[in-house]
Amino acid sequence: MGLRTKFNLALIVVFAVGLGLTGFVSYQMLQRNARDEVVQHASIMIEAALAVRSYTVKQVTPHLAMQLQRAFLPQSVAAFAAIETFTTLRHKYPEYTYREAALNPTNPRDRAVDWEADIVHDFRNNPGKAAVISERDTPNGKMLYLARPIQIKDKACLACHSTPEEAPATMVKLYGPTNGFGWKLDEIIGAQIVSVPMSLPIAKADKTFYTFMGSLVAIFLVLFIIFNLMLHFVVVRPLSRMARAADAISTGNLTLLDLPATGKDQVAVLARAFNRMRRSLEKAMKMMEE
To answer: What angle do CA 260, 264, 270 make, to 5 degrees?
Structure first.
């Protein structure tokens, strides 16, 4: 196996190991950054929903007190306002969803489906848990969801949700006497759940990863060619000249020109030593002939 082959094999092995480690670390980092970006989007959506809720409670509902005595207006309910706001948003971004899923909701559309009910039960079993962030597969691809518990902390909520008899008659007339009652103070009755698609951030992360790895491979190929050219001109070609000269001397040909020996590297030192040896051998042969 020649010197060039050994050098190239060593270089390829080093590059392969380095590329593998770099690829693993960069892929994990990019995927983590993509997930963090999705979580940030979900957090912003949750905070936006809370802002809509707060606005409805403080600035909308008080002005509808007289109307609510004649007919119940769902628009006066904070949860309804938040859900409707994000329903409008979904016209442009259909992959994004916001739910206020409850086990026993007043509005049947807010009833928790199986996987949402599992989240609510998890919050009920772990009252100290502030949020859940996880992923699930859907027909539209992988989705990340951020969930926060809905807990009855205000006694005013019980005015509508304790018993049908105490609830506003207009609300009971609209939704019936069987849904959304029996709630208790400090009880976790549901969860705010935001679902955000991961496909776009993950696709961006994958594209960045492949571009980065492709750039590394291109850089390696350029360096590989440069190193091989340097190896050829600095090491392989001078050593090949010495090998041919040594073969010629071994057959008795001492009339060779000196090998190039410029520079201070090891190859130049070896070339100068070889030239001295050839001249010494030539002188010795002449003395023997005399």
So the answer is: 55
Closest CA to 105 of 93, 113, 97: 113
Name the one residue in this structure whose structure tokens are 């009652």.
181
Scanning the structure block, which residue is given the tokens 């201070």?
264
The predicted-structure confidence for 196-242, as pLDDT tens digits, reads as follows 998 888 889 999 999 999 999 999 999 988 888 887 777 777 777 77
Torsion of CA 51, 87, 89, 112, to 10 degrees: 70
Q: How far apart are CA 25 and CA 259, in angstroms?
A: 49
Q: CATH assignment of 14-198? A: 3.30.450
Supply the pLDDT for residue 259. Answer: 63
Residue 11: exposed, middle, or buried by beta-carbon count in 10 A (0-12, 13-18, 19+)?
middle
What is the CATH code of the structural domain delimited by 206-289?
A: 1.10.8.500
* Residue among 150, 155, 251, 163 nearest 192 (CA): 150
Domain spans of the chain?
14-198, 206-289
